[in-house]
Amino acid sequence: MCRQLFLAAVAAICTIAGAACGSNTTSNATTAGASRSGIPRGGELLVSVRSEPRSFNRHAARDTTTSLVSNLTQSRLVRVNQATQAVEPLLAESWTTEDQGRQLTLSLRRDVVFSDGHPFTADDVLFAFESVYDEKTGSVLADSLQEGGKKLQVSATDPYTVVVTFPAAFAPGIRLLDSLPILPRHKLEGALKAGTFRKAWSLDTQPAEIVGLGPFLLSEYQPGQRLVFTRNPKYFAKAPDGGALPYLDRVVAEIIPDQSAELLRLESGQLDMMTSEISPEAYAPLKRAADEGRVKLLDLGVSRNADAFWFNLKPGAFGEDPRAGWLQRDELRRAISMAVDRKLFADTVFFGAGVPVYGPETPANKIWYWPGLPQTPHDAAAAKQLLASIGLSDRNNDGMLEDAQNRPARFTLLTQKGRPNLERGAAVIRDELKKIGLTVDVAALDAGAVIDQLLHAKYEALYFNADKSDLDPGTNPDFWFSFGSAHMWNLEEKAPVTDWEKKIDELMARQIATLDEAKRKTIYNDVQKIFYEHQPIVYFVAPRIYVAHSSRVMNLTPSEYRPQLFWRPETVAVVH
Amino acid sequence: MTRDVGAALVALALVAAGAAPIVAPHAPDSHFSQLLNAPPTIVRLVDAGGRWHAPFIYPWRLVNQLEQRYEEDRSTIAPLAWFSGGKLLRSSNDEAPLLLLGADNYGRDVFTRLIFGARTSLALAIASAFGAMFIGVSLGAAAGFSGGAVDEVLMRATDFVMVLPAIYVALALRSVLPLVLTPGQVFALLAAIFAIVGAPFVARGVRAIVRSERRLDYAAAAEALGASDARLLVRHLIPAARGFIAVQITLLVPAFIIAEATLSYVGLGFPDAVASWGTMLHDASTNIRVFADFPWLLSPAAAMFLVVLGVNLALQDAGTVVFAESGEPRRGVKSGS
Amino acid sequence: MIRYFARRLAFALVLVIGVSSATLMLTRLAPGDFITESLGTGASQQTIAQQRARYGLDKSIGAQYRDWIAGAARLDLGYSMQYGRPVRDLIPERAANTAILAITALLFATLIGLPLGVITGSRRGGAMAGAIRAASLVLLSMPPLLTSLFLVFLAARTGWLPISGMRSATVPAGGALIDLLRHLVVPAAAIALPLAAMLERLQAQAMSEVIRAPFVLATLARGVPQSRVLWRGALKAALRPVAGVYGLVIGSLLSGSFAVEVITAWPGLGSLMLQALRTRDIYLVAGCAGAGALFLACGTLVSDVALAAVDPRVSEMRTERA
Fold first, then answer.
1. What DSSP designation does C229 have?
2. Greatest C-alpha distance within chain A
3. In A, which residues are within 8 Å of C164 by CB distance?
4. Element at A217 (helix H, strand E)
5. pTM for this entry
6. Fewer Cβ within 10 Å of end Cβ, chain C: N or C?
7. CA–CA separation, A103 vs A552, rounded Å?
8. pLDDT tens track for B62-95
9. How distant is the alpha carbon of residue A557 from its chain centre?
């Protein structure tokens, strides 16, 4: 009798426990906002990063690990939801825009404290702006917090209200605030005043000194090995069920420089997730592991960035070189765009997991991508005709093109060594262009050398990445405007060199200043059309993004933008 | 006997390398975009129905592109053709290329690249080894023989060269050289760098041997008989280091082949179209699937092993065994010939 | 004797300064600098110029070198630009990690390679000698990258050992030392195996020459047991070439093997040096090269002492004849 009761009790408890714990493993995480009381609290997550942080001060370094540390330990006013692209409140509860978007009034959350207990007020926001704009500091974030090269004005009307004034109407507006961490004034003001802010919170700093509003605290830094974070008990955000966030107790970021080792660890369960996407080579072994239930493999769709191919369009860059006559012509680039078989490109570089693109936007940019953009046909004959129109034809019947003086049509393509996507892509371009008679010499150098060549405009053609971070083109003025520092084919022009660049300058200025979404879209379509007609950059294929994580991780909100699974760290949970 | 085996291996490698355009079924830069990482095509004599044919292969069909899985297309038979199209052996069907060692991740035939790579890598390794030997023996002999200040200076100079990381020199060289170098220029540059970098090891060893041999009785005797310094060095002392030098060659050759890939990291390598064993192995090392799924990509290591084994066997002395297996010492010790 | 050591010490100093200076200059000459690599694309010329000024990279090579040498004299080796920490702190930290790895690998390589070399060198034929030689040649034909990758792969497949890193995140039940030893196996093996192969080859060659020497035959004829002749008399003479290179081996091991360290995520000097090269972190580069030079100088000293020990006829510590 007693035994039967006992067994029944055990059975009941198991059933209840099972129902509570076992209800929520999904392979495609959906909106995490839904109330899911079954999410386990506690446990440890093991992620990997490729390199050591360069600083714990987000203003001093922009490498991905420093970014990660900042994401985990600091917070910001608002956050762009990488999955939906909506702007979500974080430290700012709500906001209103007035005066045609020139003025942004933010209402800050109350009862928020830093990890050391000090209350958070508008003063900290003012301090954040001060530190970003400080000349002595030279923050790496300064460029992204400016509009048209001018700083934003900030003031606080009361301890919980901040007013941000833009120099001119600025449609993307509040999205800029996603990149500004709110640092503790009470810890860092001294350094700012003394002019040593940039050296503050360097790698020598005691972890206990790093105070923030983020979900985690830095508890340990073992140089060369790992970073250990523990939960911040004073974190302000709460879970949908009213409980505390973050779900995790501990996050350990292992520093694993080699991709193969990272992968092996993930496969064998010694790692929970990576902070970047997997390479195409890694797909097969991870698929096997996924079939065996050890990991979950996610297809996150097309990347928002495709690798870029462009020529040096700086006037006079080729000096006396007789090829200057055809190397900078639109027809050459349009011919190249037609000559390269994009399907073959996707097959060779990404093993078929890629989507052809014909302009700077990929289908991942749901709002701004224009499906109506004409798609360059793959037509080698038409490409040859275009080249003939600028004087390049096969004059001596050797199968390769020459110019009017019988000099071979040949140029050097520079790319980065050690990046298989770039190297293979350059090889495909070389081989495809050989078919229409252009000879391409591929030179692969390390990153520093490539950027050096770019900055000094000493290259002929470059195959590199021109990645954008935010999807709103208005947040990328350096790329679009001719005076921009990321105007890849001709950096920082004093005045637009060509008519179409002038047109783009005008259109983008309007696009940024107009608040009407529909109007902005139409203007941007026009910009894309001009870009397509002149092809200053030729885009070929955008890769699909795959990530993998161990089966114990749950409640993720994946997005194709890095860090794909960890941009919202406080909601990640593990089964333990 | 083993010496002949060694010589045969080396000869085979050299002949294959020399006759590369004929031995290799494809051109070194040809690639098959539908056959990335394809496994080796198995040469068969009996088809699925049990019928006998002249040697043939089944073409590969891609089953899953992202996972890079292939299966044989049993419906088509592609017979192999000997001495056709200027090639020793190839498939008669262009849609079903002969891939004796599979294809790499760009769809290039590994066997073809192995043979053409033999040309590049062996030539480079031999040239560099000779260079290193020449410089190293000269410096080491001079240092060991003269002693004193000359010895000091030379040894310290070699120390400096040894500890200066070659990769920084290569990086700095990169900025002063033109962006695109012809394969010939790259070859000369790499051979020069390797010769200089490899010389100190040879020099040190040779110096040690020359120094100690110098003090032996036979050297004193030769001197007493009026032998000049040069004759003493060339006829007696350097040959005493011969064994050491031979071993050094077998150590340096693979090291040079591998080092070519390291230097190409900073941009001082052969262009992509030129196959070389070092780069092939390096590319294989970056692919995590190489051990489990694509072991044929490691064939340059096997080829290197065979070549080095051959050199090792060929260069060993034919001296009589002193300690026989049974433990009884034997007579008839010939002086090292 | 004292004069000898003093001379070597003085030279070691010259070597360290020379190599550090040379690498400093070479890195300045290399295309790109720390700023271009860290800011990447999209930075304006103005920002680049500002940052250059901040890090002192806008000085001429000569001025920068002067400042650095002046600092080095005070033992201030400058700051690492990427880590923001003094070079003086970074290097010993990493060097200690590499030393642990190097010494373990050296121990294994010597214990395995030398005896095997003696065996293969003294027995001309025989299956075992052939197998050992073949194994050595296989190891010598594999790039260090490949060997380490293979060992890591094995560790992953068998699950017996940690795949990478130096220590575990949480100290496990067995204790910190056991944890370290377990993490040490894969990287040490990756370094030790090719090294053992090299030592085996050198020793085999030296051995095979020595056993043909008249003194060996004479000793055998006297009736001394074969094994004693082999392992005492012949070995001592045959250690000569190995002793010659041993110091170099020590020196280069202590500078770290970057291939092994990167793959096994061992935070050592080799991977630090590679990272410094990649980011053109000038002062760190000079510091690492200097450390490497120091290790080599010590290594060659050890090597020469060892040489004198095994071959008393060539001791250069005694006064030499003209």
1. I
2. 106
3. 256, 258, 261, 265
4. strand A216-222
5. 0.88
6. C
7. 45
8. 999 999 999 998 888 888 888 887 888 888 888 8
9. 16
